[in-house]
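thread from #wetlab-drylab

HS: before we spend reagent money on co-crystallization trials with S-adenosylmethionine, can we at least see a predicted complex? here's what I'd submit
DV: go for it
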Amino acid sequence: MKSAAFVHRPVMFQEVMDVFSPLRAGLVVDGTLGGGGHARGILELDPQRLVLGLDRDSSATAAAEKLLAGYSRRFMAMHREFDELDEVLVKACEADSKFCGAPIGLLLDLGASSPQLERAERGFSYRLEGPLDMRMDPTKGQSAAEYLDSVSLDELTLLLRDNGESRFAYRIARAVLAGRPFLSTTQLADVIKSAIPAAARRTGGHPATRVFQALRIRVNDELEKLQVVLGKAFDLLLPGGRIAVLSYHSGEDSIVKAMFHNQVTGGCTCPPRYGCVCGAVSNAAYVVRSKAPSSKEIDENPRSRSARLRAIELLDVGEAGGRRN
Ligand SMILES: C[S@@+](CC[C@H](N)C(=O)[O-])C[C@H]1O[C@@H](n2cnc3c(N)ncnc32)[C@H](O)[C@@H]1O
C-alpha cells in the first residue's frame, strides 16, 4: 500500500528564516522536523550550513529524509525527542564528524503536524473517528485512552482548567470519568459536548477542541520536555547562537516567555526604573520578543492563527559581563 503524502505548511516561514539568516556557518538543530519545510529553508540560507533534524514521530523523519535527500551531506534526521538534545548531539557527531561541535541555532516549532492531526488512525482529532491515541510517538508511553482509564477526577479537572482553559472543567471531567473506557475519539467528543450546558453548546467552537489539546499536551509531556530542552540549549549552544520557538498554546508560550526573559535579564528583579543594581548578568538578547503571523498568513493557513514566535541570541563571552561556556 502506498503511504499518504506528508504535507505540512511551515508557519511564519519568512520570520523564522529572518532569525537564522544572519548566523555564521555551522550546525542548526531543528528539534521539530515535521515535514522538513523549515529545515529546508535553513539549509537553503547558506551552503555551509548543517541541519540536524529531530522528530519523535518516525513518519515525520521518514518524510523529511525524502524531501531533503538532495542535501544529504549537510542534513541528518534522527527519530529522537528534542529534550534529549545533549545525547543526540553526541550521536550525530559519532555518525558523521561534520556534525561534531556546538550548534549555532535551535528551532522548535511546537505542537502537532498537519498529518498527525488529519490522520484518523493517530487519534488527535475529535472530528475524525479513530482510536483515542494522540501519541506523537505511538511506540512509547500511554495513549490518551489509557491515560483517561486511570486518571482521577481532581487531576483531570486541573488539567482541563490549566491546559484546556475550560470553564466547565469539573463538569467535563466528571462526565469523562463516568463515560470511560473510551474506544474512539468521537465517543469522547460526544461525552464532552453533552457535559456542557445547552446554552454554551450553541456558542463558540466545539468544546472538544480545547479538551483534546489539553489531553495531547499531557499524553506527550509537552510542557515538561519544552522546559528541559530550553535549559539544555542555553548551555549547549555557542555564544552568538540563536533559539527560535513557535508556540501554539498559552501554556507553551508562557514557559518560553519566562525562560527567555530570565536569560535576557539574568534573573534581575530590580524595579526597571532604577536599572539593575543587583549584579545580575544578562545571558541573551531578544531577536524577536513576540510576533504573531500576518493576517494574510492566517487567511491562507488558518492553522497558523494561534502561533507566537519568540527568539533570543545568546551573548558572546565577555559581552555584558559574559555568560557561562
Ligand atoms: C508543527 S510540527 C513541525 C513542522 C515543521 N516545522 C515543518 O516545517 O514541517 C511539530 C513536529 O514536532 C514533533 N515533536 C513534538 N514534540 C517533540 C519532541 N519532544 N521531540 C521531537 N519532536 C517533537 C511532532 O511530532 C511534529 O512532527
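DV: The first helix runs from residue 13 to 20.
HS: ok that's useful, forwarding to the group
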